[in-house]
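[scheduler] slot 2 assigned
[scheduler] job type: sequence-to-structure, two independent chains
[scheduler] chain ordering preserved from manifest
[runner] begin chain α
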Amino acid sequence: MSTRPQGPHGLLPLNKPGGITSHDLVARTRRALGTRKVGHAGTLDPMATGLMLLGVGDATRLLTFFVGADKTYEATVRFGQATSTEDADGEITGASSAELVQAITTERILAAAATLTGEIEQVPSAVSAIKVDGKRAHERVRAGEDVKLKARPITIHNIELLGAEPRTTSGTDSAQAQVFDARIRVHCSSGTYIRALARDLGEKLGVGAHLTKLTRTSIGDLSLEDARELPTREELDAGAAAPRLISPAESIQKRFPAVTVTADQAKALRYGQRIAAPEGFTNHEGELAVLDAPGELIGLVEILEGKTKTVMNMPERQESE
């Protein structure tokens, strides 16, 4: 049975601002909370904003159970221009003719979206963090390599069109260019690249496309409404308080059903022993969160042949924090 060290422990959903990297956000969190032990359940591009889930202290071991959760994004896709990064941070690499852009309608966008909904194969963006022979794809692209990634299976549950309008913007030579902006909401599986979805929607319509805005609004049952704002460096220097963490017990119940056990059962589970399945969970499928009487998270178990099998155990607190 391991003992939980003192210090901050819990999950921290943050509202990432645009213009900084996910690494920057983790570094700021370490400084704000005074601890080095901070991890994340998936990054966001520098341009992107919205929900980013961090784990602090021993709660970092919970992140693996959130990484694979479905996610929801709201994005603006600009049809008529392609960029080197498939988002607004890149350089414009191609512009579609005014005739092709003017032919875009909401009906055609919805029809294209329908063909990209469900279980599909998606080729990730070449400027993603996927490693190719030990080096991240975006690093190879910036070094001048022509990177070709393999298609991966993903699931796009739904693409909702929130609004659309034709616009005039700057082109590659600073001349005015015709584009068509569409705001969409995407509910998808983990591993989906929204930049790649924008690219593929453009291909379906016969034009280049890229993202001009991207916000992640949910990870599993955690939403942007759950997110905290991290104090700026200046606010921290002025003595601003760090944001409150979500306790491991509270956070894990956003992903799994939970049951409370007796003191004897809790002791056995903490030592990795198997106990009889809690009442009502004899035939439970999947992970089950187990709490002790004071409400502390013991860990996650599976039910096999009427008994628990430990999937993950949390260190036990030495004393109340």
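[runner] end chain α
[runner] begin chain β
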Amino acid sequence: MNTPSTDRPRAGWRQVPRDLGYLLPGLPIAIASFTVMVTGFALGAGLFVLAFLGLIVWITMFAAARGFAIAERARVAAMEGRPVGPAHHRSPTGSGLGRLFGYLRDPLAWREWGFGILILPIRCFTWSMTIAWAAAALGGTTYVLWEWSLPRNDADNETLAELIGMGDGRLADVALTTTIGLVFLSTLPYVLRALAVTESSLVWGMLTNETAALRARTDELSRSREAVVQAEADTLRRVERDIHDGPQQRLVRLTMDLESAQRRFDEDPDTARPLLEGAVMQTKEALAELRAVSRGIAPPILTDRGLAAALAAATARCPVPTTLDVAVDRLPTALENAAYFVVTEALTNVAKHSDAARCHVSVLRVGNSVHVQVTDDGRGGAHLGKGHGLAGLADRLAGVDGRLDIASPPGGGTTISADLPIPATSTT
């Protein structure tokens, strides 16, 4: 992550247009932000006793401060050619009046407000220095072109050359002024860079908060980890229930049939034969149910042949006619598992609840993410509420920073979409 002191542009003539483009508009922006911040704070403080109207004024003031801060970060980013950030705002919690007061507990909001006030005196200096240095450089180096237009009839109007004793001729005046202009011109890139760094350092220091952003990211990862752990626990309970209700019961019956056939085999082979045939049937059904359970966890075809082959097998098993469009290569294992889980859970929902006649599955790579979409023409009404088959999808995707979206209006079919970011370290 960039920091204020790394990868800064160096002083040079190629950087001068960017520095000027940043410094020259600075003073008008600073005047506007100073006016809004001071007026908003004073007005809000005065109106606080009037049914908390001042709170609304302050929230509006903080919103304006955030807008100025966004503009400043964008201007510095354009000048330095790198993103400026992170800038993490604390999200307000609660409801009603407590939520409104939550906006006042955001440290970055107060720093943005303070920046809007502090930047004015600093820019009064940097803007004045920019104008003065640029004017001296441009005016001095071009003095020979416009010197003739200056009035010289007044005997008391002495040139700089005359004041320092270099003589009273026009040649001495032009030579001295041009030399001074060249000095200002040669130092202009360095002075502009120093003035721009002064302002940008304040932006980096007051309008970014890497520590808070990292802390928020840590909290988010902790919540994601808890969600994934809960999703895995739910999956294990579901697998345990499926095994108990299916293969385990069939294996119990198989054992009973085999024991019964064993007792009757010597005395009455004709009676034992149907029991053996039933046992064979129970074995086949138990194996089929075990395969179905294993496919819900991680099918071998996914590991051996990849996501496209696994999804082709999953859509082939769906009782609703399903078309498949897969346009991705091999992905990291976690992403392939997540995409497979999304599709299989969505197809299960289609088969059990949608009353759909057609279904379409697409898995496409869009930029640096994988977009998974399952669409049917059923009755709609699907949601992520507890007790529904789709409840664990969002938790499962949280482990890979995925995002889930469900559009299912009543009578309008269901579209389940998932965006799975591809890690930067992935080479696929």
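[runner] end chain β
[qc] chain β: The two ends are 24 Å apart (CA to CA).
[scheduler] slot 2 released
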